[in-house]
Structures are given as structure tokens and as C-alpha cells.
Predict the 3D structure of the following.
Amino acid sequence: MTSLRKSLLVWLVPVFLTVAIVASVWTYYMFGSMVSWFMDSQMQVLADSHAVQTLGPPALRPLSDHNVGKGGLIVQIWDAQGRLLTTSYPSLVVPLQAADGFQEMKFGTRHWRIFSIHTPERTVQTVQCIEFREQVISKQAFQAGLPIALLIPISAWVLWFAACRAMGKLESLARATAAQDENTINELPTKGIPTEISPLVIAVNTLLTRLRDAFASQRRFVQDAAHELRTPITAMTLQLENLKACPMDAETSSQVLQFEAGLKRTKRLIEQLLRLARQEAPQKADAVSNIDLAEFLREQISDLMPCADHRDIDLGFTFDISATVRANPHELRSLLHNLLDNALRYTPEHGVIDVRLFADGGKVVVEIVDSGPGIPPDLLPRVFDRFFRIEGSDTEGSGLGLAIAKHAAERNRIDIKLDNRIERSGLVARVTFADGAGIKNVPKLSTAA
Ligand SMILES: Nc1ncnc2c1ncn2[C@@H]1O[C@H](COP(=O)(O)OP(=O)(O)OP(=O)(O)O)[C@@H](O)[C@H]1O
Ligand SMILES: [Mg+2]
């Protein structure tokens, strides 16, 4: 993946560097020719002013080495016989130039620019140090390039900051998109989104709205279909009861029994489908309440006690704590019911089921431990899938119970974990609550529901 931020910098820094170099070189030449022209004019004007004088040589102000180094103009006046009459800087001996105009020469360690003007009475030469000119020009070129060079880190930082802000918006959009699931589909926020990506966000929002509608209509369809199927199934059950009352031969009776089993299966499937469809409907905020978990479990277990008695299963409940949890009571009932129902149905007759309520690491835990066959370890991760059933099981089922339980758990911040028992065959369904308020230890006593 390429980073937009890095690409922007990779493009911008060389552009700025090139601009800084071009600006410096341009300034060097432009300013150089301007300075040369200006200083040459000064040399010319000064030489002219001395050349037009007819009186004796003027008294010239002597120049120091420092003045000469800083571009001071040296004046030399020669008589018609080529004798030096006066000079403002005696240390420098520049020979008399034969021709008028500008010359360049090296004397000592420095280069000099010389302007000569000849009149019948005298020759005037003005001389200036060339290194000084170059210093001035280089300094000016450096000063022109410096602000642009300084702009490189500043603009890189500004660009990085601006890109980070824009990316921050994109990242928050990505988080909001990732948080969507089929039950909570919400439009992405459009406030503060860069104009360039707002068409994309609007398009995604339109898609999300369509998706939400599609999920809602699929849920409604399953709910309506399951609901509508209940009436004919009930009618068929009644008719079957009437049929069973009639005398019939052995073969017909066995076929009627098979029909009855099929009808029961269909009825259970319809009930589970209806439960799943209802559960997937968006949850209202006020549907969550505080639940006394020990009391809640006792009620659930009492409801299942006739079924346990019927199969001679020892269904027991022990609790070390009393705790209040926050959850949707319908969903929590459905979650616990499916786990208890599985324990009861997959545990063979005369088996044992223990339901335990305790605290572990400050969290409220319910464990349902049965003495059934357990689940092959490689299939444990798949049993929460919809319609997944383990082949070879004699027990009837639709394969939706654990999917319903898992879904209810996710919506109520509850964790469900299935594990096989270590010491013997059987399954441990461990339900851990994220929210557990007022966990209180209760005196160690076992309570049969
Ligand atoms: N306590 C258990 N002991 C052994 N196997 C289990 C237990 N609980 C679940 N299973 C296995 O996991 C499978 C999936 O369970 P799930 O509750 O989702 O569906 P079901 O029980 O087949 O159907 P229903 O929707 O009627 O509950 C079951 O078919 C069963 O094979
Ligand atoms: Mg089940």
C-alpha cells in the first residue's frame, strides 16, 4: 500500500528544493549584473568628476585597508607625462592603463576592476576590489534562496498535519463502517468530511440504507412466514390427535408416529426461526433492565424441572454469590434456555446437570455442566453457526439454538464458551457477564431449584 502522505512529501520536497536553487541562481546572475552595472556607473561618475577639473590635483581622502575591502573606490590621478600625481590608496600600485574604459587585473592577492579616462592634462583611474562585489552578490543570492529553503520543512509539516487531519476523518469513517453489522446499520457521519470524499460517503450511506431495508424485509419475511406456518401446523397437530384416536393397523400406526415426529421437528424449527427473527429486530434502549441472576436462573430451572424429571435427570443449581446483571430479560432467557435445553436434550437419561453461579476475577459466571457426550473438539467452533448440527445425533433439533444464544450474548455483552469436561464426558457451557453489579457472596449452601 502506498501512503498518500508520503507521496505528497516525495513530490513536494524536490519541487521546493528546485525552486530554492533556481531562485538563488537567478538572483545571483540578475543581482550580479545589476550590482556590476551600478558600481561601474559609480566608478565612471567618480572618474569623470576628477577628469573635468583643471586645477592642480585635489586632496583625496585616504582609504584604509578595511574601506578598500568593503568596496571603497580608489582614485588615482596621473599627469600628462604619466606620473602619478595623487592616489587615495598608496599601498596599491596599479599601472597606468593605455586605453579608456574598464579592465580587470590581479595585483597581490586580489582582483581589481579599473576604469580609466584620459584627458589632455591628466588621466584618472578609479579602482575597486572585485571580491567585494562577489561577496555582495553571493550574500543576496543566499538571502533570496533561504526563505524558500526554510519553507521546505515548514510546508512539509503543514502538509503532514493537514493530511493527518484528512486521514483522521477517513479513519473515523472506516471505524464507523467496520462497526456496522446486520442489526445496527447506521449512516456514516457526513459532518466535517472533506468535500472530495463526501460523494463517496453519500454513496455508501445510500447503500447502507438499502442494506438496512433489505435486512429488515428479510427479517419480516422470516417472521411472517414462521408466524403464518404456526396456524396450519397447529391444525395438523389437532388433526393428527384425532387420527390417532381412530383404530388403525400396525403399519399405519408406525407411519402416523413418523408423521408426528416430523410435525414436532417442523414445529420446533418454526419456533426457533421465529425467536431468531424477533431477536434480530433492533433492540430498544429501554429493553435492558437489572436482573437478579440467582432468582432468574431459579425460575428457568423450575420451568425445565418437569422435563428433567421425565428423563430422570438430576438437575441441580448451586450459587456462591447473588448478583445483579444488566441485560434484556427476553434475550437472557432465550440464551439460558437454549443452553439448558441442550444440556437436557443431549444428556442421556439418568444423567446429571449442574448449574453453578459464581464470581471469577470480579465477573459473574454461570456454568452449565452436563454429563452428556460433549462435542468433538474440532466441531466446537462451528456449533454456533446457524443450522449446524452434529451428524449422528439421535436428538431432534433445528441447529439454531446456539446461534440464537450467541446472538443474544453479543447484544448483551455476555461471553459464551463451550468446553468438554476433562474428568469425564460432558459439556461445560460457561456464560460470563461483562456487567455484574452488587456481587455478594452468600453462605455456602446448595439449592435445588
Ligand atoms: N450440551 C450438549 N451436549 C452435546 N452436544 C451438544 C450440546 N449442545 C449442543 N450440542 C451440539 O451442538 C449442535 C448445535 O446445537 P444447537 O442448540 O445450535 O442446535 P440444536 O440443539 O440441534 O437445535 P435447536 O435449534 O432445536 O436447539 C447440536 O446439534 C448438538 O449436536
Ligand atoms: Mg439446541
